[in-house]
Amino acid sequence: MAKKLKYVVLFFLFCNVVFANTPGRIGLGIILGEPTGISFKTWQSDEIAYDAALAWSLGKDGKVHVHVDYLIHNYKLIRTINSNTPVYYGIGGRIKTKDETALGVRIPLGINFKSRKIPIDVFIEIVPTLNLIPETVFDLEGGIGVRYYF
To answer: Which residues contact 49 (CB under 8 A, 6 or more apart)?
Structure first.
């Protein structure tokens, strides 16, 4: 249990450092899928953001799941009336822990639907993942979520 708590504390410390200098551009919400839990996002510019989650992996043995991603948003791939629907891609890392800890590299690909009238976004993503520790295994995750921006 102490091992799991250590990862949770490290996650929140990391989020505090990353999100501290972005007033009005911090999103908090949920992600449903693999994993399911709390989702955070902070925009560094109109195209660059960091995304993180503290969640539960719903796989066969259920694990605490923590991930952090660096994301690049492209507003030109999908044309909408308000051009506020970027496609995003990036790279990140994840830790899953239960009885043994797994470490992997994530490559998120998704679509972000941003509202111009209310401070929310909805996202859908698919995330190929390469587990590196304790063994090298390819995995595929994905989810849908919503965040409110402060």
So the answer is: 41, 42, 43, 71, 73, 88
